[in-house]
């Protein structure tokens, strides 16, 4: 199985690094418009670098490609790869347009190709621990905080598409339910696109959920709180630490730490993707699931 990576920014360079760790010389090529960066990573990993991904596809003929370029470029690159019968891991969101995303999914389905979409938080061991804790229990509410400084890599989408879409996916993933109602309050302080938002959701199963996200906080916070009937589960998705608070009585309560098998989420995600390709069975986040999250994110972005 020959593997290549297109786009060597903050995510792409980690895709390349992890593929090298997982499969060694099966990583045959990397591509980026930045020749200085591309040559540097190519030399570090001992793989061929291409400034033009078309040339890389033609020469290396990879079986598998990770697309880690800006969202606005996903459709064109992914369609070209699918035409060459290449399995894809596309960093989230799948595209910036539902119709284009559906077209990619239709092409892949007809050709029997795998598309996974990079919702890496699903593979966060902290999320896995939380999901296990709430299994078969009634979830009352989910509250997520995802804030931090503005990332220079983002130039073509607002914060709901870039960050909020992670949590749209997580809320559906943890509850196992679909969205009944969605609402957004947004700020476009000094920018064309929203850079802060409060998102609210009502799920079909009755769960209520909220997401607070912005690009103004000088440090990263990735926190999730899941309220059950008799307890509160709190997780830090950066440290992968999860605690449960329960048994409130006489102004006191009990706290317990929940075991988390801490691992690098992206390594788990890419390993799952490669296994999907081997088994010809979608084990990760499918294009269909990604399209559902994208549709919700676009509705929130475009709402008044």
TrEMBL record:
GFO/IDH/MocA-like oxidoreductase domain sequence ranges: 156-226
A Pfam family: GFO_IDH_MocA_C3
Domain Gfo/Idh/MocA-like oxidoreductase N-terminal intervals: 2-119
Protein name: Uncharacterized protein
Gene3D superfamilies: Dihydrodipicolinate Reductase, domain 2 (3.30.360.10), NAD(P)-binding Rossmann-like Domain (3.40.50.720)
The organism's place on the tree of life at top rank: Bacteria
MF term (GO), any: nucleotide binding
InterPro entries: Gfo/Idh/MocA-like_OxRdtase_N, Gfo/Idh/MocA_Oxidoreductases, GFO_IDH_MocA-like_dom, NAD(P)-bd_dom_sf
């Amino acid at each position: 199985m020959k593997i290549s990576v297109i786009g060597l920014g903050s995510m792409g360079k980690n895709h390349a690094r992890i593929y090298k760790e997982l499969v060694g010389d099966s990583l045959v090529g990397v591509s980026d418009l930045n020749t200085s960066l591309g040559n540097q990573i190519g030399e570090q990993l001992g793989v061929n670098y291409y400034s033009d991904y078309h040339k890389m596809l033609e020469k290396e003929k990879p079986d598998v490609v990770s697309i880690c370029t800006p969202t606005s470029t996903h459709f064109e690159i992914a369609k070209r790869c699918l035409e060459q019968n290449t399995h894809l891991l596309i960093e989230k969101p799948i595209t910036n347009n539902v119709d284009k995303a559906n077209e990619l999914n239709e092409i892949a389905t007809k050709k029997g190709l795998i598309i996974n979409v990079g919702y890496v938080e699903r593979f966060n061991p902290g999320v896995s621990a939380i999901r296990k804790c709430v299994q078969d229990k009634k979830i009352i509410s989910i509250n997520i905080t995802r804030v931090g400084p503005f990332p220079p890599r983002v130039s073509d989408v607002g914060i709901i598409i870039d960050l909020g879409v992670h949590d749209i996916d997580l809320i559906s993933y943890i509850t196992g339910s679909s969205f009944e109602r969605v609402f957004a309050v947004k700020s476009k302080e000094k920018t064309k696109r929203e850079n802060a938002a409060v998102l609210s959701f009502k799920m079909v199963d009755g769960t209520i959920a909220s997401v607070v996200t912005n690009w103004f906080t000088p440090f990263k916070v990735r926190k999730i709180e899941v309220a059950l009937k008799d307890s509160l589960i709190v997780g830090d998705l950066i440290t992968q630490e999860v605690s449960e608070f329960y048994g409130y009585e006489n102004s006191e309560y009990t706290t317990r730490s929940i075991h988390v098998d801490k691992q690098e989420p992206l390594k788990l995600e890419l390993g799952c993707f490669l296994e999907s390709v081997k088994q010809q069975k979608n084990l990760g986040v499918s294009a269909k699931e990604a399209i559902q999250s994208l549709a919700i994110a676009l509705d929130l972005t475009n709402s008044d």
